[in-house]
Amino acid sequence: MVNYIWAVLIIAGTVVGIATGNAAAVESAAIEGAKEAALLCISLAGAYALWLGLLNIAKEAGLIESLARRMRGVISALFPDVSKEDEASGYITLNIVTNMLGMGNAATPFGLKAMKALQASNPCKHSATDSMCMLLIINASSVQLLPLTVIALRGAAGSSAPAEIVLSALLATTVTTFVGILAGKIFQRTGRCR
Amino acid sequence: MQIVTLISSLFVPLFIGGIVVFGLAKKVSVYEAFIKGAKQGFTTSIRILPYVVGFIFAIRIFTASGCFDFLASLLSPLLKPAGIPPEILPLALLRPFSGSAAVGALTTILNRYGPDSFAGRCASTFMGSSETLFYTTALYFGSVGIKKTRYTIPAALISEVSGLLASVFICRLLF
User: Fold this and answer.
1) Do B140 and A115 touch (CB under 8 A)?
2) Is the Cβ pair B46, A162 closer than 8 Å?
3) Which pLDDT does position B2 carry in this prediction?
């Protein structure tokens, strides 16, 4: 699916760009976009090193395991195929908690760790498990409690009350997370690999 | 409100300090453990690079070609009957693709219509209710070599549309 969406963006962009005489703009957009993306990744290396370093301290101290044990009830309700001893549930918990706190830079390395752990017990390696789908749906529905970036942008735009959207954003993200989980649960039987 | 921002500003330092204190209490050689984990930082950032480049450059081509404006003008008449301010359409369309593009779209809305306008409040509310979907999906599944993403994208898109509708509804009630 990602294949088609990506292809549509590129094909529509190049064809329309050439047809409307925006070919030069398309060229510079492609090159600038790639450069900006690479710079972003390099700038993330430091943050990832920081969080993965701290994560490893937590892991060696047994914190990940105990977190996984404590959260087992909640996690296994949402992620049915996470096995009991699985360190995946520890990483999933960390991914969700850091997302809730708006620490996106920390959430990504934890999320990738969770995917790796989930993949280890995946019986068919090319197809996503229900737990993987659920992790992605929860990540995409945003569970952030305090939208700090939005508050900052509103402040910069001269709002008289930059933080007044905190409650509405919290309600909206509760709706999206709930709807996402529900949709995931409904679709769960579809396309399963046997 | 002050209290909420205070707590959130204290959280990260407490989180960092707490892990180190806990590690010491459990007799972990914390510095060595940190370095061991941190070594994966650079490889992780390099590993995500192709996925980030793939989506950022695609969405840039799409917007620069004029496709995006055309799509937005095509869809905006559909929004009015649903009571959704058409001003927030660019944000809604960009949100699943790129975080930085969504920040750009939100900034445009806030500056053009005002952060305290109805469109500005709806856009701000919606921004906090969903995340970049396509890039995250490509990255998370790509990192472990999974090709079939099954129902991930449909379910997440349903969630995003519900966020758009909920944001407008909630803003009508609250403001």
Assistant:
1) yes
2) no
3) 65
State which residues form the domain around B104: 46-174
Look at B147 and A58 and tell me if their CB atoms are within 8 Å.
no
Among B67, B100, B122, B133, the strongest candidate for a mutation testing the A interface, having the largest count of A CBs within 10 A, is B67
Q: Which residue type sits at A155?
A: G
**B27 in a structural domain:** no
B12-23 burial, b if ≥16 CB within 10 A, otherwise e? eeebeeebbebb
Chain-chain contact of B120 with A154 (C-beta, under 8 angstroms): yes
The pair of three-digit structure tokens given for residue B148, joined into one six-digit string? 């079939």
The minimum CA-CA distance between B54 and chain A, rounded to whole Å, is: 8
User: Which of A54, A108, A172 has the CB atom closest to B129's CB atom?
Assistant: A172
Which residues lie below 8 Å from residue B96, measured CB to CB, with a gap of 6+?
A140, B130, B132, B133, B134, B156, B157, B160
Per-residue pLDDT tens digits of chain A, which is 194 residues long = 778 889 999 999 999 999 998 899 999 999 999 998 899 888 888 888 998 999 899 989 988 888 888 887 888 889 988 876 678 888 999 999 888 877 778 899 999 999 999 999 898 899 999 999 999 999 999 888 888 889 888 989 999 988 889 899 999 999 999 999 999 999 988 777 75
ipTM entry: 0.89
Residue B136 domain flag = yes
Q: With respect to residue B1, please indicate whether it lies within any of the assigned structural domains.
A: no
Structural domains of chain B, count? 1
- The 10 Å Cβ neighbour count of residue B93 is 19
- Residue A9 CA to residue A187 CA, distance in Å, equals 26
Instruction: Please check whether residue B155 touches A, CB under 8 A.
Output: yes
DSSP-based three-state secondary structure for A127:
strand
Q: Is B32 within the bounds of a domain?
A: no
